[in-house]
Amino acid sequence: MKRKHILVIRLSAMGDVAMTVPVLKQLLEQHPNIHLTVLTQPFFATLFEPLERTTIHFAETKTKHKGLRGLYQLYRELKNQYKFDAVADLHNVLRSKLLTFWFRSSGIKTATIDKGRKEKKQMTAKGNKRLVPLKTSFQRYADVFNQSGFSFTLNTSLIPYGKQTLPNAAINLISLTKKNILIAPFAKHREKMYPPDKMKRVIQELLKNDQVQIFLLGGGKNETESLSEWEKEFTGVINLAGKFSFKEEQAIISNMDLVVSMDSANMHLASLFGVPVVSVWGATHPYAGFYGWNQSMDNAVQIDLYCRPCSVFGNKPCYRGDHACMKHLAEEKILERILLLIKD
Questions:
Q1: Do 4-147 and 175-342 come out as alike in CATH topology?
Q2: What is the pTM of this model?
Q3: Thinking of the domain 175-342, which architecture would CATH place it in?
Q4: Measured in Å, how far apart are the chain's first and last C-alpha atoms?
């Protein structure tokens, strides 16, 4: 049987890119005659390296593929280097729409994700809010392949990747006798972030338990500097930010007993390795379809408010002005879930 070659487009953001992995892995397992080329940013390459029959092609949108001319150059690169049977647009933004348009114009079958914008708008409306579980992003990704004639069924109990080999610099950091807990207290948008003073109180309470080892993780200069200060403030807490490559961070996450995260990429990274996540939710909501792969909904810590969710992605300012969804979320609720999960 002739092998089918599919171009998969997902350029950003990290959490959304990570969410494609369980889908692509099961697609490959259920269709042995498929080869994938994943078009994404160079930074995300390590997410796909363990996948079989998968090529990674870089979209360098800030340099040589910048702008309309650069994007067309990217199209020509792909067209000349590969022979695709189908294109799966898992992003549905201007860049990916243009690429799929050019491929479709050349006679190649394309399919694009339906992001469910209408129902998500209803979910986040100020009035007549309709708060019901929506189709997950995982299923929306799978639907794109089903539309392309590569139908398959998602098994949400299957974990994509196993525990990874620790980098040498981290081997002696991981405790063999305690519960290793990684806390990722930041998010891209403020409305998705638990107040730092409240998260510090969570850490303070956890440190009373001599059976836990706490690690901190974040990205970028500001988060790294903040977590360095946290490390100085709390004896025994280890800051990992800025000390390891992205691939090494994934390996470390895979060796954790538990991750505490916002609605952010770290929740999705931990989910790839089957690590339980206590996730903290404010402006956004798990019902929007971005919850971690195979994570128990019991571990989503949140409070019910008439205004929640006010945003799909957490990128809109709190219209109440008080960020009540996070400020009124008691530290004890987070602690309760953590302690329940690390209990032997």
A1: yes
A2: 0.97
A3: 3-Layer(aba) Sandwich (3.40)
A4: 50
